[in-house]
Please model this.
Amino acid sequence: MLKKVLAVLLTLVMSATFCMTSSPKVEVKAATSLGAQKAELDKELAQIEAEQKALDDKIAAAKTDLEKQQTKKNNLDYQITLTKRKIKVIEEKIVVIKGQISENEKEISKIEIEIGEKSKEIDKYGADIDATVAEIEKKAEEIAELEEQIKDNFETFKKRLRAFYMHGNSTILSVLLGADSFSDLLTKAEMIQRIADHDNALLEELTSTKDDVIVKKENLEKEKNNLEVDKELLEKSQSELKESMATLEEKRVTLKESREELEDENEELTKQTSDLKEQIAEIEQQIQDIEELEQQFAEQGEVLKQQAQAVQDELDEIYKQMESTGEYIGGSLLWPVYGYLKITSEFGWRFNNTDYHTGFDIAGRNDANEKIYGKPVLAANYGKVTYKGYQENGYGNYIIIDHGGGLTTLYAHMSEVYVKKGDSVDRGQAVGAVGSTGWSTGPHLHFEVRQDGKAYNPRKEFPNYPNVPNK
Model:
């Protein structure tokens, strides 16, 4: 029975070992897949960090604080794009990390179940070892009892032999000669025969008992030896289980430490994402700061005048080469940023007559208190895109739309442009998004209207401002 129990236990050990060596493969594969995803996201984050550093270096290379500030403004949209990319990658990384934590917890749970099962097996082995030891002790006691029985019987036999040797035939003869009659003689002879038979039977019994005891002792010794072997096997299996459990315990500790690290990283990334979103919100909620522009003109008036003149010279050349096609379709112009009516800088001379503004700037927030950054820039009327360009010290990203009859509209400082030169556009079509590219101190749209290349006050097109057409 003990051998059968041992065989069952050994089968369980082999099954448990097989489970340990085969089942984790799926888990490892999944973890490796998540690890590969995380590695790719880390590479992407490193690329974004490199781009950010290049931008920071560009800003740091500016000679004056004013130049640094202007470089920041010129790259505001790029900074926002980088930040949004970083947020997207971090959020993807958080999803991967949460997946790793989930896989980690599953593995820990599985290991804890295995540890519990192995602990039960170890306890069972311990109980079996105790039972085997008890059986060995019982067999040893049986052997001792048999040896004691042999010893007692042998002592009795020795006494009988000693008495027979000491008195022998003389005693028998004395008994026979002492008979009173022939009948008494026969009676005493019969008694002597019975004694002799008894002694012979005792001798035979002693001999038989001795042989039986020797056989039993040999069998008991074999059983005892087998039990000793079984005990060694049980102890070995128990020891292997304990080593296996110790390995599982180490793995569980490692996984828990890994999970804690992942949770810390997740917390840090979540905070980082929140901080980045706050940065974007701070950037996007800025509006055109006219006082800052005026301060820049005061500090670097001549340089900025030269830059502004170069911008206008470039624009004049563009308009000279531009040919308006067809007649103006007519009708009022559409307000170019729906719901945003704040004009932060009017048409005409500004900054103590040091800068001539050829359009007006639309900024601020709408009735829902939403920031203007990224909002659609709408074509003021039907027409054709006749120019698309970029001026670092001027309009940033800008386009010109020809509406026919020599009437054109210009849209500047956009973060994105959705159309290209030659595209036909409808009234109210989104042609770009509000930004802060070029010479700008915050998100806004510079909008201007020209007739035959000459700028005039756009307010002329919106006589009932702020009740402006939006359809």
Q: What stands out?
A: The first helix runs from residue 2 to 22.
